[in-house]
Structures are given as C-alpha cells and as structure tokens.
Design goal:
The protein has a four-stranded parallel beta sheet, with helices on one face. The protein contains four helices and four strands; from the N terminus they run E-H-E-H-H-E-E-H. The N and C termini lie close together (about 10 Å). The chain is an alpha/beta fold. The protein has a single domain, classed as 3-Layer(aba) Sandwich (Rossmann fold).
Length: about 140
C-alpha cells in the first residue's frame, strides 16, 4: 500500500496546495498526496493557481479545495511547508519541515521559485520513500 503524505501549513491555500498537486503529478505511483491546514480559506491563492496552470497545466481550482487537518485520512508522512508561526501538529510515522517561505503577495518569480523548489523536494521525497530511506 502506498504511504499517505500530508503537506500542511496554517492556511492550506498556497504552498501546501501546490505540493499536493505536484505530489499527484510527479509521485502518484509512490505515495498519495494530501494537504490541509488549521484554518480554512474560501479560495486557494489565485496567484498559485495561475502559476501552477502556467508551469504544469494543472488547474488546482478544479481539483482541490482548502481542507482542515481533521478532513485527512490516517497519514504516514507529514511535511510541514515552513511556518513562521507554530506549525500544526498531525500524528504520523515520519515528519519533516521543508522551511519554504510563503510567496503570497510576492512576485510571480517568487511563486515560480517556490513551485520549482516543491517539485524538486517532491521528487526527492519519492526517491527516499522508494529507496526505503524513510522508515514507515
């Protein structure tokens, strides 16, 4: 059975949503991707939506919505996106913090940089899961 990975931050509107989409795109054969936060947002960050559409041809408005931690199934791996405040807690077998800055309100270049960093980290995480470097 594929491990379930949750990408979490407070608002679940930008980085964690991008990570969920990129996890589905690049690592669907290795793990199941979810995202959530401790506060719901009515909309996903529209800059993130636009950048993801431009870079990867994914419309996260169509496929995803803001979710709370309680909405998730039992999670094996928690990835914190990098919170300047206290990151939410979610029980799991393994946890890491990617320490990514929130691009919200910044330029497209910042969003592209964030998306590319997430893509790289997703591929690395998939490799580590595949090579059993992460004990579950």
């Amino acid at each position: 059975m594929k491990p379930k990975v949750a990408f979490i931050c407070v608002h679940n509107s930008c980085r964690s949503q991008m990570a969920e989409a990129l996890g589905k795109l690049f690592a669907d054969d290795i793990f199941e991707s979810y995202s959530a936060g401790t506060e719901l947002r009515p909309n996903i960050n529209q800059d993130a939506v636009r950048i993801m559409k431009g870079l990867y041809n994914i419309d996260i408005n169509e496929t995803q919505k803001s979710k709370l931690l309680n909405d998730l199934p039992k999670i094996d791996i928690v990835v914190k996106m990098g919170c300047n405040v206290v990151c939410p807690f979610l029980p799991s077998k393994y946890e890491e913090d990617w320490g990514l800055e929130d691009p919200s309100g910044k330029s497209d270049d910042e969003f592209i940089k964030t998306a590319k960093a997430i893509e790289e980290k997703i591929k690395d995480l998939a490799k580590r899961i595949e090579n059993k470097k992460i004990k579950l």
